[in-house]
From TrEMBL:
Keywords: Blood coagulation, Cell membrane, Disulfide bond, Glycoprotein, Hemostasis, Hydrolase, Membrane, Metal-binding, Signal, Transmembrane, Transmembrane helix, Zinc. It is a single-pass type I membrane protein. The keyword Transmembrane helix applies. Its EC number is 3.6.1.29. It is found in: Cell membrane. The chain crosses the membrane at residues 409-433. Residues 450-460 have a biased composition (Acidic residues). Gene3D superfamilies: 3.30.1360.180, Alkaline Phosphatase, subunit A (3.40.720.10). This is bis(5'-adenosyl)-triphosphatase.
Amino acid sequence: MLLKILLGVLGCVGAFATETVAEQPSPPPQLLLVSFDGFRADYLRRFPMPNLKLLYSQGVLVEQLTNVFITKTFPNHYSLVTGLYAESHGILASNMYDPVSHEHFHIYNDSNPMWWNEARPLWISALDSGYKTAAMMWPGSDVTIGNRTATHFSAYNPQVTFKQRVGNVTKWMLGDEKDKGVMFAALYWEEPDHSGHIFGPDNDTAMSQVLKEVDDNIGLLISELKTTGLWGRVNILITSDHGMTQCSAQRLIQLDSCLHPDNYTLVDLSPVTAIIPLRDPEAVFKLLDKCHQHMKAYKKPDIPDRLHYRNNDRIQPIILIADEGWTIVLRGDELPRLGDHGYDNSLPSMHPFMAASGPSFRQGYQISSLQSVDIYPLMCKLLSLPPQPNNGTMTRARCLLAAESCWDVPLVIGLVVGVLLMLTAITVLFRYLSSRRPPGSRPFQRLQVDDDDDDDPMLE
Ligand SMILES: [Zn+2]
């Protein structure tokens, strides 16, 4: 009986947690996805960001996103719009070599569709549902993926200001007499990444100025959305691809000191080195394996499962991963960048954040973490689109939505323990009362008998 009641309570909690309180409006609100490259999660705590705080105080905040390995710009931007780990979408690094086609990829030479065709970004897959879409300088924007591009797109051009980018995006979202506005738009901005590399994230003076400019741009975005009447009508999701960590000339790993460059072809360098051995792979690996205490060497089959970075032809036979803040160079003592990213995706310094606001989101709600691959299924739900196969889940992201009711796990555990204690107390009381009745009598008759008892002082 006790167990049945408990299961009933748990069943009610479960049913309530999965119940959809209200249906999505039809058609769903438009969605604007914005990335500020290299926005490390703790910048939010370190620097005043009044406009960003205003946005998520009226919406939701995810304090930290666990992004995908390697924590570089292109792999992570493609994961945000596909929900896939890098090994599954095929954009694995800033520099790649494809052993099947013998092609080379670099972020400034990225427009061969072959590199991108292992996945479909949201601005392409949404076209299948009859939506118009836009991609403003997001990595892959101008590439013909699956023989298509977004309805509107712009190739990356650092000369175009944030204001100009926002102006185009809002124009595309509004549409005109001939064309409906786009349902989904992705917008990219290269700060605070660019300055983080130059100054290093620990430079408070420089970074506070950079983050002020980023926040001013968020203010400009909000203002533009208000002016055009889109504010409050569309869903806005602001996020980033990765964080940033401080590097130092005292933390250099020189590959040439371990292995002569004639022994291998170098595909990518730091902080994750990709190497193709040219002779005796085992001997090459052994030399690299003992090269430096702050660098781990892996043969491709031994790359840890948790990195989801093994099952792709474009991952080379040997990879080297530097510890946080260490820089791999070929030779010399020159530090290329004061700040860098690309390191292990379990490091908090590599994590970005996510904030969102709009009619579909809860108001003033925060959670501590989410996987960055969860953002794709969340966006599909916001747009009422069927998601492509992906590595994400709605388990936690669902709680960000106004139409969903979620119970905090500690609250549910507390409730269950409370009910259990109450039922236990009732059972003990019941057994105690039962133990006081004469053998063979029924409990409620016993009360009746007690009323007639001559010993009852009321009858004396
Ligand atoms: Zn980046």
